[in-house]
Amino acid sequence: MDHFHELLRDKSKFCHQIECLISSIDLINNDPVIKECLDKLKNSIENCVENSGQVYIFGSRVYGIANADSDVDLYFDTGDCFSGKIADNYTRQLQLIDLFVKAANREFIGLKIITETRIPIVRFIHDPTNFNCDLHFRSGLSVLNSELIKLYLTMDERVRWIVIAVKHWAISLKLLSDDFSTYSLIWLVLYVMMHYKIVPPIIDLWKMHHKHEPNYTEVTRSTVHQKIT
């Protein structure tokens, strides 16, 4: 932490470190071997429960800020659940996790069901690729939100630079956890950028690209999430 505070006092040194970090991240995210491993991971999960649905990757691996030790976040659509059919059914999500755990083969190490989080997940290591993984069955909202963040991060190179710098700062201070994720941190950064009109608000972004009304991806009793496609 003291080392990080030193860097902040030296603007040029801090900027140089972030540029080096971005170069390293770009190498990882553009590495064809890693992309092949991610495909292998998805296939392994889908093959566990044959003909049961499709696996999607979301999170930092999608919006291009993953580093070498980043987890892989996954959503398993078991059929017609992408739009949120079981989003409010916590019990059903746990049942699907339990089915996956029982069907999982030796490729999946240290399977652990996490229920303390808002969305139940199963955490494991995929042995052939050595990826640390979090898998959920709730809905495709996380996939769509990742695409939205990816759009924001590619609109202006300053946005991605600042997001990576703030994430680096948060990791250095050990601020990130299951309760306060990189995803939450990114939206805080984007909110500030919307305030200063560096990026447009979501509704303006929608109007720029579409003439029709939004499609509702997931509706709960307390909130409505919209699909930006």
From TrEMBL:
UniProt record, GO biological process: RNA 3'-end processing
A Pfam family reported for this protein in Swiss-Prot or TrEMBL: MTPAP-like_central
Taxonomy, superkingdom: Eukaryota
Transmembrane portions of the chain: none
SUPFAM superfamilies recorded: Nucleotidyltransferase, PAP/OAS1 substrate-binding domain
Poly(A) RNA polymerase mitochondrial-like central palm domain residues: 35-153
Alphabetical list of Gene3D superfamilies matching this protein: 1.10.1410.10, Beta Polymerase, domain 2
A molecular-function term among this protein's GO annotations: RNA uridylyltransferase activity
PANTHER family: POLY A POLYMERASE CID PAP -RELATED, TERMINAL URIDYLYLTRANSFERASE TAILOR
Protein name: Poly(A) RNA polymerase mitochondrial-like central palm domain-containing protein
Protein source organism: Aphis glycines
